[in-house]
Write a structure and sequence with these properties.
Number of strands: 0
Number of helices: 16
Helix content: over 70%
Strand content: under 5%
């Protein structure tokens, strides 16, 4: 049964005044998220080069090594969504973030390709769990009337990290040729994020972290229902959001190929040796601009409208990237893909949350992230295999095709599915946009 509620995207409805968006806890969560993704993106664009130069790994082996990280993040996220819904979120968050931080020391001690693969693969688990826990904490500390908008701004911390970290990494590597320095920098940045999360005060009036106490008075029937609820698949994966999740797999696949093989493609196919940092900077600029431009639409609840703009822009960007193998196509695609993903992510995340109950926020977050992980993992694995046997040009034509298929799926099916199955019915998205 649908549950009608005040349209959460419009603060003027059911509110005497606009609630404060930028509270202290929200800023701390955003800072921690920036550190989390900064540490991640410091290594991502250069790991293929590291594996190739230090261990002599081939393209398909590089794909296998890189996909392991995403695989463990994928396997961990459904359980992390369950944990943050069932236990105190701050404690879960701090444990996950600590493990994410400490694993960077493993890269410094891995002396063989096998050891590096083990460390990299295991590192995906705390990364996956920390992203779910941190984003769920962000939802908790946001006032309900500003949630759609706040989730959109929250993604800016990812985007800023993506804009700065690859450029910093490439600059450091260009002048030092020292990967250990990058591993140490990621280690300390992750520690700073852990400290930021440790200072969050969940007793704040804006925080809505659920308090779960055993119900000693519950009847046997009530307890049985509770146990059934705890063990149901819907506690690990938001079943009502399956079509949106499938749609996100396509988009994750595209970005998985792009983020992992951009540096090698630019170097081997286009002769661009120093453009990876600039590419990610332009991509992130597009992400940031679209987040800022789309904030008003999110505040008004125009989720499907934002998502439709995003998937179309991304489809154009990925096609331009491979169809125009020159500087204009290369850097122009970065802006278009950034603009597209900047619309897609907050829209899809808000849509997934709108299809979940309040006690399923962690599950909703883990579901959208799991679907992205599946796509990213398939992108790293399949992209490497296709590049090894058919070349990078064919791999990126596969990306363009996957994005177009995902775009058509959303426009023809997913947006209507969301409108019919959302739990917080808003007037803007009640009818077809």
């Amino acid at each position: 049964m649908r549950r009608s509620s005040t349209f959460r995207g419009n603060p003027s409805i059911g509110q005497g005044k606009t609630e404060r968006l930028w509270n202290a806890n929200y800023c701390k969560v955003m800072g921690a998220n920036f550190a989390l993704f900064f540490a991640f993106y410091l290594l991502t664009p250069l790991l293929p080069l590291y594996l190739s130069e230090h261990f002599g790994a081939t393209k398909d082996v590089i794909g296998l090594v890189l996909s392991g990280y995403t695989l463990t993040a994928l396997l961990c996220r459904p359980f992390s969504g369950f944990l943050v819904d069932q236990f105190p979120r701050k404690k879960v968050l701090l444990v996950c973030f600590f493990l994410f931080f400490i694993f960077f020391a493993g890269y410094l001690t891995a002396a063989s390709l096998l050891m590096f693969t083990i460390v990299r693969t295991l590192h995906g688990a705390p990364f996956g769990a920390a992203t779910v826990a941190n984003s769920t904490m962000a939802i908790d500390v946001l006032p309900s009337s500003r949630r759609n908008e706040g989730i959109g701004y929250y993604g800016l911390s990812n985007n800023l990290a993506m804009a700065i970290a690859p450029s910093v990494a490439i600059y450091i590597y260009h002048y030092t040729k020292n990967f250990d320095l990058l591993f140490w920098l990621a280690f300390f940045v992750a520690f700073a994020g852990l400290l930021a999360d440790a200072t969050i005060h969940t007793s704040s009036s804006t925080a809505s972290e659920p308090k779960r106490e055993p119900d000693a008075r519950g009847s046997l029937a009530q307890n049985a229902r509770t146990r059934s609820s705890l063990l149901s698949l819907d506690r690990f994966f938001l079943l009502s959001g399956w079509l949106l999740a499938l749609n996100m797999v396509f988009f994750g696949f595209c970005f998985g190929v792009l983020s992992n093989y951009l540096a090698i493609y630019g170097k081997e196919e286009m002769g661009i040796t120093g453009g990876t940092g600039s590419y990610f900077a332009l991509l992130s600029a597009g992400l940031i601009l679209s987040r800022l431009q789309g904030a008003k639409a999110l505040r008004q609840g125009k989720l499907t409208h934002n998502a439709a703009e995003g998937v179309i822009l991304s489809a154009i960007g990925y096609t331009l990237f491979v169809a125009c193998p020159n500087s204009i196509g290369y850097y122009g695609s970065a802006i278009l893909i950034g603009l597209g993903n900047g619309h897609v992510w907050p829209a899809f995340q808000n849509m997934m949350i709108s299809m979940a109950r309040h006690d399923q926020r962690g599950t909703a977050n883990s579901t959208i992230l799991v679907s992205w992980d599946i796509g990213m993992g398939l992108g790293a694995l399949i992209g490497g295999a296709v590049a090894e046997h058919l070349g990078y040009t064919t791999a990126f034509w596969t990306v363009a095709l996957a994005q177009i298929v995902g775009t058509l799926l959303f426009l023809l099916r997913s947006q209507q599915y969301f409108i019919l199955h959302r739990l917080d019915l808003g007037e803007t998205d009640r009818n077809k946009p």
